[in-house]
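Below is just one:
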Amino acid sequence: MKMSDKGIEWLKYKEDKVLDKYGNHVVYDDATRKPVNHNEPLPQGATIGYGHLVKPGEDFSAGLTEQQAIALLRSDIAVAERTVQNNITANLTQNQYDALVSLAYNIGASAFKNSTVVKYINNPNFHSSIYPNLESAWKAWNRTQGKVSNGLINRRQNEWNLYDVGIY
């Protein structure tokens, strides 16, 4: 499977973007959504485009056009798609797959593959003493830098709505 076009548009909306006055994507602090001055050190969580975490050695000081931001998003989504494909053995509908790709994209491959979410989906008889069901395991991914985030609470609810009932 691949993430659907509808799923990609949904993800773009959830990730949002920060633009300069010319309409180019700029590096921003994911926690504050404020642009980062390219002459300053990057904060933890420096992001560009639609949720791309800036990695050491990447230089986005010139910003990105919308086309470049979409290409970077598609490249990042491919990693999340492989993560879902390599770790989920259950049959999925398109909306379930799209929701899982969004979760994997947001929490990262390692966290996803070791998550209780994966265990619940792959094994209908799985039981956790911490999370009584798949929904609670999914919604537990609501922290950033150790703190509960209202943005992540909302994101997880939206992903759950997409997974459970197909609301894009």
Remarks:
- The chain has a mean pLDDT of 96.
- The beta strands are 28-29, 34-35, 46-48, 52-53, 143-144, 147-148.
